[in-house]
Amino acid sequence: RVIVHVTNKLSSESSETSIHWHGLYQKDTPWMDGVGYISHCPIGPGQTFTYKFMARPTGSFIYHSHIGVQRTMGLYGPLVVRKNLTKEPYEEFFAIVSDWNHEWDSSFSRFRFDSGLINGKGRVLVDNLKGNGAPLEIFTVSRGNQYRFRWANAGNIYPFRVEIDQHNITIVSSDGHDLTPV
Fold it and tell me: In what order do the strands lie in the sheet with 91-100?
């Protein structure tokens, strides 16, 4: 069971928000889906709303704003739904990739893509194609161990291809559904 209290602290009167639980079924609670103006009334500035629903199916998901360009400006995060409370057999990492508009204001950020981010970290090329020195996401692993990476795309328009050089990757699930390992 998921219970999340959201208080909208955005300052503008036109800054409504909502949270969409991407990929989770909303059987019996469609008003908790968080798609503003479709299945959910947005949360106005200064207002609080409590989302309550049963999380189905199990797997790796994200939540994100479903109003305007709030998702492209960073209103998103990871959500893992587990079958039970047993510990995963492997150490886990969650990696959310997203597009980044470095220079334009939020009104245009849906359409301009300057760089990709992993967990909100990344670089953009500046003068003479030098990086801006911003931090990068680092996953520390040990040789010979196996890890579970939960990948999600919070980008607005562009797909991403993920490769880890000189490592084998086995896909075991996608969008909340187990797969025959590939």
Answer: 115-118, 91-100, 147-153
Contact 161, 169 (CB under 8 A): no
> What does the DSSP 8-state code read for residue 89?
S
- Tokens representing residue 60 in the block: 């790796």
Structural domains of the chain ordered from first start = 85-181 (2.60.40.420)
Q: Tokens for 23?
A: 């990929």
Residue with tokens 């390992």, as numbered in its chain: 181
Q: pTM of the prediction? A: 0.84
Number of alpha carbons in the 13 Å side-chain half-sphere of residue 163: 3
Q: Which residue, 164, 122, 128, is CA-closest to 147?
A: 164
pLDDT in tens, the chain (182 residues): 999 999 999 887 678 999 999 999 999 999 999 988 898 889 999 999 999 999 989 889 999 998 877 877 778 999 999 887 777 788 999 999 988 776 665 555 556 777 889 999 988 877 777 778 889 999 999 988 999 999 999 887 778 888 888 888 899 998 888 899 99
